[in-house]
Amino acid sequence: MTWWARFLGWASALTAASLLFGEGYRWALAQAAMALIALGGQQVVLQKIEVLAPSDLALFGALCLASRRARWRVRFKALAIGIPSLVAMDVLSVVLGVSFLMYQGAHGPAAPGIARWVDGVMAMLPWMSACVLWLLLLGFRELPVQRRGGEPRGSPAGA
Prior knowledge:
The structure is a single chain. This protein is mainly α. The protein has helices spanning 3-39, 55-66, 72-107, 112-142. It starts with a helix and ends in a 17-residue tail after the last helix. The protein is elongated and about 60 Å long. Helix 1 (3-39) packs across helix 3 (72-107), helix 2 (55-66) packs parallel to helix 4 (112-142) and helix 3 (72-107) runs antiparallel to helix 4 (112-142).
């Protein structure tokens, strides 16, 4: 089975799970963000947050589980490191997003270019975080690397 087929299978299953449990996950993110913001002396109430989480967790899980060259133990270790890291990044992104909105409330709206940049970063952060974590934890095993002789690692010589 090709890597893409494995990835699509895992991504489909994990995306279904993220849709099923997404509302509870987003509620927990809001609670964690409110607690962190309260540590800074500000009180906010987040009734609903609109983020793509936990789709980033589904993407990372699918990338890890689809990996073919790493043993299962190594894949589970990557999941054990990556998922809590992504959760922390999700909480941090909500805190940063709310902080930006609070700043705008106190100082007036940001310049349109800055607001678009912040929106772009906030939209890209979960997807990039999942992919970069996978690259750091398992990607080096999966992606072909050029050897000195010119052949990609993992390919038969002369093929």
